[in-house]
Design brief:
The protein is an alpha/beta fold. The protein contains 15 helices and 14 strands. α6 runs parallel beside α7. The termini are far apart. About 20% of the residues have low confidence.
């Protein structure tokens, strides 16, 4: 999970660099809701120092002990809260640390704990909470929240968006890839109210299904989101979103949750229109003629899932700058962010109609879907076989794929026959 921690760190660094100067006069409240060993929170505190007020949370006795030991080894004080009280008042903190001077200053400042932004040891300390993540998320508000539970994060999304502040950032790491990738359809339906299949763009649909769950949770609190970063790697799906408060933003985001009609023969796809009336013949929306040439039902509906942007190019550029400024530059992370930046600056598919084809790109069109190879590198797929595109007379992107899989041979044959007929 090293790449995941680095993505979260770069997201926080980019967020702090985007804040105006007056906002940085107060500490930015950051929460690592599932801290385990405390590595994430320690990294934030060592990197950003007094700029952030770091809170780490875990509901396991062993995890709390490990967090305190790791903080002691790194000469970072801790303010530990005993297990759970549901009261809204801030409990008494017990200061621990390897530095005796730090402990003395901490005890001296205990009388001022009503104000979380005190000077001295309290600013230099990490707050350790031995409680359930849902409890602390309901009790207090934060500017930056990272969710990385074991498995699905859907059980914590409602609590996350209740108090997270306007303009804040929420990062979600979901490791339940069996349900997101459609291997367990019943679990996908139960957790995400969605359906997915193993397709050539399955990782993208998995990311969009996760974002749709985030959108629904935020909308319950009259909040909308702006997707900043999306990545689906081998063992997790990562999403970072920015919060915009207001029913208007919530409605705009909810309207971008749509179903996808997917052809199982050539894997063409299109977003179904947002309509309460039943469609007469949904097959006509697909750009292929497989339903005429093949018997039976050749298409299935995927989703509902997010149909909006997957990236914010300015934010990713800022993340890339933060990565390049690090002394311990990670080439893998830098390469990943460069691929994301390149994809986020692609031409909008809205110029070619509101259809989601096998090679259409996303990012600035609410009714388009990213190309399977255009998003591939950022989703952990090798991009050595790049595709070449051109625009035909029908103003639709056609891709000539360089590999020789059976599906791609059928697709090339289909497009060739279609062009011959048109001529």
């Amino acid at each position: 999970m090293t790449i995941n921690r680095q993505l979260v760190l770069c997201t926080l660094a980019s967020y702090l660099s985007s804040l105006p100067g007056e906002d940085l006069q107060h500490q930015v409240e950051c929460l690592d809701a599932f801290s385990a060993t405390g590595l994430m929170g320690l990294t934030w505190k060592k990197r950003f120092k007094s700029t952030v007020n770091v809170t780490v949370c875990d509901n396991n006795d062993t995890a709390i002990r490990l967090i305190e030991e790791n903080c002691s080894l790194n000469n970072v004080c801790t303010r530990t809260t005993p297990f759970c009280s549901a009261e809204r008042t801030r409990p008494t903190y017990y200061y621990k640390g390897a530095n005796s001077n730090c402990e003395a200053e901490a005890k001296e400042n205990q009388s001022h704990e009503k104000d979380s932004r005190v000077n001295g040891a309290a600013d230099a300390a990490i707050e350790v909470l031995h409680t359930d993540a849902n409890i602390i998320l309901h009790q207090r508000g934060f500017d930056f929240v990272h969710l990385d539970p074991y498995g699905s994060a859907v059980n914590f999304l409602d609590a996350t968006f209740r108090n997270t502040r306007n303009g804040g950032i929420v990062t979600v790491t979901a490791t339940d890839i069996s349900s997101l990738f459609g291997k367990c359809p019943q679990v996908t339906l139960r957790n995400y109210c969605s359906f997915n299949l193993k397709t050539e763009y399955v990782k993208e649909t998995a990311a969009r299904i996760l974002i749709s769950a985030v959108v629904r949770a935020a909308a319950k609190c009259n909040k909308g989101i702006e997707v900043l970063v999306t990545a689906a790697l081998e063992h997790f799906v990562f999403v970072a979103v920015k919060i915009h408060r207001g029913a208007k933003f919530a409605d705009m985001c909810v309207n971008k949750i749509q179903e996808v009609l997917h052809c199982q023969i050539c894997e063409e796809r299109v977003f179904l229109p947002d309509s309460h009336a039943p469609l007469e013949n949904a097959y006509l929306l697909l750009p292929c003629d497989c339903h005429k040439e093949k018997p039976g039902k050749t298409a299935v509906k995927l989703g509902p899932l997010w149909s909006g942007d997957l990236y914010n190019s300015e934010f990713i550029h800022s993340m890339l700058c933060e990565t390049n400024e690090c002394h311990n530059k990670n080439e893998k992370l830098s390469s990943l962010l460069q691929s994301m930046l390149a994809e986020s600056q692609c031409t909008s598919a809205s110029d070619f109609g509101h259809q989601m084809t096998a090679a259409s790109t996303t990012l600035n069109a609410s009714h388009s879907m990213a190309d399977k190879r255009g998003l591939a590198n950022s989703l952990g797929i090798n991009l050595s076989d790049r595709t070449e595109c051109d625009i035909d007379n029908n103003s639709r992107l056609n891709f000539e794929v360089n590999d020789d899989t059976e599906k791609n041979r059928r697709r090339r044959k289909f497009h060739t026959e279609k062009e011959e007929k048109a001529e």
